[in-house]
Amino acid sequence: MDGIVVIDKPPGLTSHDVVARARHILHERRIGHTGTLDPFATGVLVILLGKATRLAQFLSDADKEYEAIIRLGYATDTGDRTGKRIPGPEYSPEDSEERSRLGDWDEQEIEEALKSLRGEIDQVPPMYSAKKVEGRKLYELARRGEHVDRQPVHVSIYQFEAVKPDGQLIKNNLDGTFDLHARVSCSSGTYVRTLAEDFGKRLYVGAHLAELRRTRVGDFQINQAITLDQLKIHFSEESLGAVVLPPRAALSRLPFMHLSDQDVAKVRHGREVKVVEPGWADGENVAMCDADEQLIAVGQYDAASKSLHPRVVLAGES
Length: 318
Hints:
This protein is of the alpha+beta class. It folds into 3 domains: 3-62 and 218-248, Pseudouridine synthase; 64-217, Pseudouridine synthase; 254-313, Archaeosine Trna-guanine Transglycosylase, Chain: A, domain 4 (Roll), CATH 2.30.130.10. Helices cover 19% and strands 31% of the residues. It has helices at residues 15-26, 96-99, 107-115, 138-143, 192-202, 228-236, 261-268; strands at 3-9, 31-33, 42-49, 64-72, 75-76, 85-86, 119-123, 132-133, 136-137, 153-163, 171-172, 178-186, 207-217, 220-221, 256-258, 273-274, 285-289, 295-302, 307-313. The strands form 4 sheets. Strands 1, 2, 3, 4, 7, 10, 11, 12, 13 and 14 form a 10-stranded mixed beta sheet that branches. A hairpin with an 8-residue loop joins strand 2 (31-33) and strand 3 (42-49). The protein is elongated. It starts with a strand and ends in a 5-residue tail after the last strand.
């Protein structure tokens, strides 16, 4: 079984848990995902099956989109609703007037805070994250009560805007907290939890994520996603073809070329193929397909020799 299935991850499961359940359902040994979602989060989790697992490297930098509920009122040690409430930030006397206006923000103030976090920004990875420092995962250190300095990471925030699901910009929860619904489109490696915390700081209030739903990874959309229960049904009804996408779907943003039967044979054995002035950049990755649109390999273009060198070969593997 070679291909891609887009899972709508439920809350409460780790991404690893989802992979383990999919492996059990499909009886497929080679299986993996392309980007971790926090346990409390839901939405798009791209699962690669069989030979398609070798394509994970081409999806690791895919842009992502999220729908989030940012809860204003207090911060947590994890940056989301699963964490423990922590004291708010200290403010200077000149900020005290702003701080006293909790919940009394107009639309312009909200927009200015959102706008300040769009574009190219630096983020400090949260302690409760899977990022490694000197070979150790930060969340493992955090659970032991350790705190380490983290270097900022450069990310791109393409879209960070408020959404009004009921025509209301800010919802008053009547418990000292206020919810803002937001839509985020960002580069890989962005921590939406950190974005929520930084947004709160712009309004002089602690903040955390109350909800997070990933709606897109690269070209894979939430409307393509199925639940684990639906995957089980498709397997039992032998209708996986309706939900398992071909490996080439992982490479939709790469240029591609059709191979002749002769070139297919060469590529299967890892041999380069000549091309004629394709207009590709030196070192660019190219999807290599046969006449039936089946993905044979991913090649790397060598401008000097005007040839494609197979980098990852799928066809012909055992």
